[in-house]
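re: ur question from earlier - yeah i can do the single chain one, its not a big deal. heres the input i used so u can compare w yours
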Amino acid sequence: MKQAIVTGAARGIGRAITARLVDDGWQVAALDMDGAALRAWPAHPARQDIVCDLSQESEIRQAVAATGFARLDLLVNNGGPADPFSGRIDDMSMADWQHWIAPHLTGTFLMVRETAPALRVARGAVVNIASSRAFQSEPDTYGYAAAKGGVVALSHALAVGMGPDVRVNAVAPGWINSNDASLEADDHAQHPAGRVGQVDDIVEAVLYLAGAGFVTGQVLQVDGGMGRKMIYKD
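and the output i got, formated as tokens:
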């Protein structure tokens, strides 16, 4: 049975990735800082739920040890705050900055560091969840954009440094309706693909990269084509 760790597994994209892997016969360690959300998920014999704050080095070390995995076929680094908006840069504190940098970027580094021996045993893969915000921005998203941009750079550095034993890639989602929000027709129409993304779009991208043996150091942008669309005011 293949083994995987998914962070940020209690909700949204992480939960969908975890559920799909379990359905496909994987043994999965589901990590999330929200213990109540993990406990609310019906138990499954192939899923191990572990509470872990990705901003804390000691908790990451303990969580990885708790999985008991001597080999690891797949690590999906998905955890971290989803809301990108910080307010004006003039008003940001170091705590505000670390709110995004610590779990998204430092947490990704620590998860890979702690699982590297098991990944090498399995000749496994890492898929880091970045964001289209690594390449495009709205105002007042400084910490989130920097963290996700760092994840992109860290991914190709890891791919070169850990190859050929471990492949490392990233998925950069665009607008993904992970909370089933009510959307307008214009929301869908602005995308060249004709619709806003769904969590399954990201799941499929992760599964592709998990098995794509000749793909490493890449960023797969899953954004319905918005990253290629030129937008001008009428």
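The domain at 3-228 is CATH 3.40.50.720 (Rossmann fold). not sure if urs matches, ping me
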